[in-house]
Amino acid sequence: MSEFAPICIxxxxxxxxxLIPLGVPFPFASxxxxxxxxxxxxxxxxxxxxxxxxxxxxxxxxRVPTRTPEKPNSAPRxxxxxxxxxxxxIFAHIPGEGHNSQEHSIVLIRGGRVKDSPGMKSDCxxxxxxxxxxxxRRKGRSKYGAGKPKSR
Length: 152
Prior knowledge:
CATH superfamily of the domain at 54-134: Nucleic acid-binding proteins
CATH architecture of the domain at 54-134: Beta Barrel
Helix content: 10-25%
Region (Disordered): 53-77
Distance between the termini: 105 Å
Structural class: alpha+beta
Radius of gyration: 26 Å
Oligomer: single chain
CATH class of the domain at 54-134: Mainly Beta
Shape: elongated
GO molecular function: structural constituent of ribosome
Transmembrane segments: 7-28
Family: Belongs to the universal ribosomal protein uS12 family.
InterPro entries: NA-bd_OB-fold (IPR012340), Ribosomal_uS12 (IPR006032), Ribosomal_uS12_bac (IPR005679)
Number of strands: 6
Largest sheet: 6 strands, antiparallel
């Protein structure tokens, strides 16, 4: 063995050892000197409702897009990109047929999943703030912000 062999081994292993504190796995390690554990969305504070423990949040609509659902459905879903008061940006579904909401209108958001739209985990509340309810609705009025119909 030559006198340069220990220096060559040091030059190969020393960069690998310096990477261990960064969470990069050491190639010769047997068990766990590897990546740190992943945190859940709740622990990181990315869930806009769970992090504040609130049933509704207020937000502003910067955009008014529509989105097509997953197969086999095809009718475009009216959605709202909402910037919440805690600075989170989310997509929320606008229930019912038609809406009056425009850019930069203020809406109130509650939880509620839309099955055929991926990533949609909240609903806009109709009849509150700038989003009007559905006029002349008879059934399920509380979900759509409709008033009590006039008796005949």
